[in-house]
Amino acid sequence: MTLDELSKILTKAPFPALSGNVYCVGRNYTDHVKELKNELPKEPVIFLKAPSALRTMESSPIACADESFHHEIELVLLIGTHIAMGQKADESAIQGITLGLDLTRRDVQNELKAKGLPWTLAKSFAGSGVLHPFVAFPRGKTLDFKLFVNNDLRQTGTSSDMIFDFGFILNFLLKYQDLQPGDIIYTGTPAGVAGFRQGDEFHFESKALGIDARGRL
Questions:
Q1: pTM attached to this predicted model
Q2: pLDDT at residue 106 above 90?
């Protein structure tokens, strides 16, 4: 699916079309950091996904799901305006928000980490960025979210549990580059990551965002 085709599904007006920039924050929930036996970060851990990694919830199942494949549900931000590097930003820069899955080939990631190599092949591959269509960003609210797999509750989180909040993440990224309309930012996952197999049904739920949707891996 092309970026234009994705935009027509995920970012309908008044949202900007997807820019193709996909930023991801790792280790942003204390309970998740502990479950993977990592150290608590002193600043956001940033990695990227290619735009070709994105898929909608209704897309065809991906081909590379296997035993080491993990789900990570996240709040995902959509930037609504251009912000120049070095400028200060707050939540007014966020136009949209949704729920998404950052799918991870965990065995591959562990091998890459052991060699001191980037995580790209474990995090950015066809279908690894699953997204529900964006909704308006509700400023000033605590945002709840849940992931069910085959009707079993796997992950539950809230924005108040993040180590680095939305504003901190924006300003950290702005130390290094501009942010563009249509940029998206995965903001990290809570504890509960687990195996995910082709054919599994997943269910996103957030009362604060009005999201209640199902898909299939």
A1: 0.95
A2: no
Task: Show Cβ contacts of residue 215 under 8 Å, excluding neighbours closer than 6 positions.
Answer: 57, 58, 130, 201, 202, 204
Burial 10-46 (b: 16+ CB within 10 A, else e): bbeeebbbbbbbbbbbbbbbeebbeeeeeeeeeebbe
Tokens of 19: 């820019």
Architecture in CATH for domain 3-216? Alpha-Beta Complex (3.90)
For residues 21 and 87, give the distance between their C-alpha atoms in angstroms, rounded to a whole number. 19
Distance of CA 137 to the CA centre of its chain: 15
Residue 55's contacts (CB-CB under 8 Å, 6 or more residues apart) are 1, 6, 62, 126, 127, 129, 130, 131
Q: C-alpha angle with apex 96: 185 to 140, nearest 5 degrees?
A: 95
Residue with tokens 């994105």: 54
Amino acid of residue 65 = A
Report the DSSP beta bridge partners of residue 54.
129
What is the domain partition of the chain in residue ranges?
3-216
- Answer whether 38's CB lies under 8 Å from 113's CB: no
Kind and range of the H or E run holding 95: strand 94-102
Q: How many beta carbons lie within 10 A of that of residue 152, not counting itself? A: 9
pLDDT at residue 145 in the model: 98
How confident is residue 121, by pLDDT bands cut at 50, 70 and 90?
A: very high
What average pLDDT score do residues 149-162 get?
97
pLDDT in tens, 3-62: 999 999 999 999 999 999 999 999 999 888 888 777 889 999 999 999 999 999 987 766
